[in-house]
Amino acid sequence: MPQAVNSVLVVIASPGDTAEERAGVRNALVDFSVTSGRRLGVVALPWLWERQAVPEMGARAQALLNSQAVDKADVVVAFFDSRLGSSTGVDVSGTAEEIHRAVELGKPVHVYFSDEALPRDADLDQLVALRNFRAELESEGLLGTYSDALDLAGQVVRAVEHDIESRGWTSGIPNASPSGAQLRWWHDHRKEQKGLDKHGKMQYRTKSNRLVVTNDGDVDAVDLVFTTTWSADGPPPHVEPHLEAVTVFARSEVQWLCIPLASGTLRIDAAWMENNRPREQTWTVAIHS
C-alpha cells in the first residue's frame, strides 16, 4: 500500500565537462530512493538544471537558478573535472556561486575533484582557475576526490546517507503545511568580485555579514532571546549586542551584524514564547571569515 516518506532535495552542481558524472550521480540517487526509500522513510530527489530549471526572465541567469534550486535545496553536491566554468559577475563560476550560497545558507555541501588523467585538450587557463579555487576551498572544509563517474556516484550516495542520518530526516513525516514557528539560523556572508590581483587571482570585497534568523512557520516566535557559543581555535565573531528580546514574526526574519574573525561553528541556544507556551532549541551555524 502507499507509504508517506520524507523527501530530500539534492542539487547537483558542476561545470559543463561533467556530463557523465552528472548522469551517474542522478541514477545512483534514484536507485537509492527506490531500493531504500520505503525502508528508511526518506527519498533523495536529484535536481539538475538541464532537467528541472524553468526558463524565466527578470534577473541574472545564475540568480534565477539559485532561487529555483540552491535556496530550496536540502543538500548541494558539487564536483569538478578539468574546468571551473565561466564567471557569473558575482563569483568565479556558476558552480562556485552555488557552493558559496549553499554554505552561507547553512546547507550540507559536498565538493569533489577528479583525480583522473587530464584530457589532452584541457584548457590551461581553466586548470589554473580550478587549482586556485580548490586551494580556496581547502581552507574552508574537507574536500573529496574521485577516480571515475562510478566512484563519484557511490561517494555521493554515502554523503547523502550521512546527511539523512545526522540531521534526523528519517524520523517523522512533515505536515502538509508548517505548524508553529519554524526557525532557521544562518550566516549571511556575501562577497563580490573586485578584480584580479597581480598574480591573476580573483579578489573579493564583503557585501554582507549578518547573523540571520528566519521564521518559515505560521506562528510568531515572541520574546526570542539567544546565546552564542564559539567552537573553533580562532577568536569568536563579533555579534551585534542582542540583550533585548525580539519577536520573529511568521514568514519574516531578524538580523544582527556579525563580523567573523575566523571560520568555525557557532552554536545558537534560543528560547521564545509560542502561543503562550515556552520553547527552546539549539542550532549550529557555519561562520566563514
- Strand content of the residues, in percent? 35-45%
Low-confidence segments: none
> Given the helix and strand composition, which structural class is it?
alpha/beta
CATH class of the largest domain: Alpha Beta
CATH architecture identity of the largest domain: 3-Layer(aba) Sandwich
Overall domain count: 2
Major β-sheet, in short? Answer: 5 strands, parallel
Helix content: 25-40%
- Tally of contiguous helical segments: 6
Biggest sheet strand line-up: 2-1-3-4-5
CATH topology call of the largest domain = Rossmann fold
Distance between the termini: 50 Å
Provide mean pLDDT, rounded.
Answer: 89
Topology:
Layout (H helix, E strand, L loop, with lengths): L5 E8 L5 H22 L1 E6 L1 H4 L8 H8 L6 E6 L13 H11 L4 E6 L9 H15 L5 E3 L2 H18 L16 E14 L5 E14 L5 E11 L6 E2 L6 E3 L3 E8 L4 E11 L2 E11 L2
Parallel strand pairs: 1-2, 1-3, 3-4, 4-5
Antiparallel strand pairs: 6-7, 7-11, 8-10, 8-12, 9-11, 12-13
Helix pairs in contact: 1-6
